[in-house]
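In this section we walk through a basic example: taking a raw amino acid sequence and producing a predicted 3D structure, encoded as discrete structure tokens. The instruction is simple. Fold the sequence below.
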Amino acid sequence: MSVPLIRSILAGVEIGDSPGPDTVLATAATLASALKADLHVVHAVESGPLAPPLLPSVTLEMERAAEALDTVVGRTLPHGPVPASRHVGLGRAHRVLSDRAEALGVDLVVLGPHRGGHALGGLGTTTDRILRTLKVPCWVARGDLNLPLRRVTVAIDFSTRSHPALDLSLSLTSALGGSAGVPGAPPPRLDVLYVEWPASLRDDPEMEEKMLLPRIADEVQSAENRTGLKGAALVQPRVLGAVDPSRGILGHVAAESPGVVVLGTHGRGAVARTLLGSVASIVAREAPVSVLLAPAPDTSGT
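The resulting token sequence is shown next.
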């Protein structure tokens, strides 16, 4: 039995002109407080040359970035929690964040969904690179995180590569859901999605009821056995008919508005299509809610 634990969180913070709180940092702080985890903050300065000896202008930029990061932390977290560390790194944003995450041994990285530039937290080339290299879950924050979580969505593909996503979704609903610390409160709802070809569902009208839904239930039971979190959520198995898995998932999310969508990365569907690899990137980019990406276990050595 193994419950995915989050004891340390790293927030990739941008420094911009906005006078308001930083969404990424606020989300990471909310999670850290609820999970009793350490909070770490990182920002990347991309100015050349990126290796010593540094130009005086680069050194000055690093000092100004550190001061600006302190300002962002102060206005976003006036009442805490106090970050365990604040780090300004020089280098490509994806490398700075990945190196910092590895050095600290964090259990979760929080980024933003912004598209532009090379700023740390941008969901473009930079974040795609981060998502492909990180070995820990990554929360792509969109909007305020409101706790307790009332509803969580997770997509699976019946492979072992989607186990971390399902296990993590159970852990989240247990730790952050409506029943956490509130006696008598109902547990949150967990929608467990599987995407199938529409033509297959049309050709076999009994496929969903007799094969796919029972198999989803078996996957959930296995996850409950792995984590020991039986009853942590009101599980709702769902079969979606979609040619493009990402569109099916996004359609469900738009209709149901879960607090967060949990996806595994680099999995394959029953019809030999990439379901949770490139699709995870599309959903993270376009979903109107936050997305939590759980990397598949490393099987390169097996």
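Looking at the output, two observations stand out. Residues 86 and 180 are 30 Å apart (CA to CA). The chain has two domains: 8-140, 151-294. In the next section we compare this with other chains.
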